[in-house]
Amino acid sequence: MKIVVTGAKGNIGAVVVEYARSQGAQVLGVDNVGRGDGLGTYIAADLTDLGSCYDVVHGADAVINLAAIPDSKLFPNAQTFMTNIAITYNVFLAAAHLGVPRVVWASSIQVNHTVPPHRPVRYRYFPLDEDHPVDPQSDYALSKHAGEMIADHFARDFGLIIVSLRFTDVVTVQRWPRLPEPIPPDERYPLPHYVHIHDCARACYLAATAPLPAGSHTVAFIAARDTHVDLPSRELIARYYPDAELRADIQGYDALISGKRAEEAFGFIPKFSCRSDALA
């Protein structure tokens, strides 16, 4: 199986490339860093250019598209939005025209809870799931929300299999020993969501390889099963989101984000918990 991984030099992308190869996939890494290795394992490309997208995705069985400006305030607002939208659209279009059947791409929890929000965030219920109304509040969050709408179009009208992974706070190996963390005294505090970077890589691979129907678009949160703060979950809800309905028996430090769809659609169950030295 040939998988193209864009954003291959980024934090998540580098781990995805390594994991996919460990599973026996032939992987072409793509990023705008440096130049290609001449071996067919890495190529440098600007994916805001449609022709470059056609070149790098040709012949792939799946694309894992992680190329993007990864947050707000790194570049001017318009540049962040336009860059991310151009890459997302170009990858979908190239895949559709060249017969690449599947695209997995990085959406974000920020379509639900922008960090930091510009106005108070309200939730109707917990655990939060993919059917909850979204509330993007930044150039970055808007680019991810728009990307999901573009994905709807390409799945419906071109028959692509698309999986939009709403990554939560991705924790690197270097940061991992610092978890769990104390909760900050900020009323804008976001959901204490997180996922270990190795779980991210496994989620990407499963989404790229699990049986899914043609013409489907699956939006799925990728999150650990617990929070990463020292405040029990029910106390956190009472303090920050007192009007939210509880739709599950949340106890201890249980996650406030549901992982049910990722598990049911492509078999992803997180293995890492910040409250255990071993795999969860």
From TrEMBL:
Top-level taxonomic group: Bacteria
Gene Ontology terms for molecular function: oxidoreductase activity
Keyword set, alphabetical order: NAD, Oxidoreductase
InterPro entries (UniProt xref): Epimerase_deHydtase, NAD(P)-bd_dom_sf
Residue span, NAD-dependent epimerase/dehydratase domain: 3-171
Family: Belongs to the NAD(P)-dependent epimerase/dehydratase family.
Name of the protein in its database record: UDP-glucose 4-epimerase
Species whose genome carries this gene: Candidatus Thermofonsia Clade 3 bacterium
